Amino acid sequence: IAHVYCKDVFGIIGENFTFPVQIDQKIVETVWKKNKDKVAEWEEQKKPIYFGPLWNRSVLMENGSLTIVNLEKDDAGTYELQYWDSLKDHYLNFVLVVLDSLPEPNISCNTSAGELVLNCTAHFQGSLNYAWKLSNNPHSYQSQELSIPLENVDTTTNATCIIKFSQTERSSEISLSQCLP
């Protein structure tokens, strides 16, 4: 009986993507397939061999992980890793979804109840991590919205919103002086 494992994974066009493979035993042989077609294989003591559209854009490591360089929309699909540990075959399945590149985040600001409220938005298919950085403060704030009491607003300060998905991040900046009436 082979254990079958399946996981949905997400990458962004243009970034390098590595399948999250964690194997703790010694691997003797690996074969990666995309939609049932072989894309990479490795046998102990030999160099990896690559096939099809990934032959010049992928790296297969001895631990079984496969990295695709410069992701393209066409890389989306079902991938299967079959590996042999000298005792039995194991199978890991991944469904790779390739998302569009990150948009530039939009910053809006207003004042309400004695506070300056900054809001950061970005339209994207995946769930984003949001952070704020103020030019006069070493800390970053992990949220989509940032409130600053009006008496603490320094008009020479810039606020930067950073959005992150996978290994990619984009940012936008606004001067707090633009936000005050």
Automatic annotation (TrEMBL):
It is found in: Membrane. The lineage of its organism: Eukaryota, Metazoa, Chordata, Craniata, Vertebrata. Its main location: membrane. This is LFA3 protein. InterPro entries: CD2/SLAM_rcpt, Ig-like_dom_sf, Ig-like_fold. It comes from the Eukaryota. The gene is Cd58. Coiled coil: none annotated. Keywords: Glycoprotein, Membrane, Signal. One of its GO terms (cellular component) is membrane.
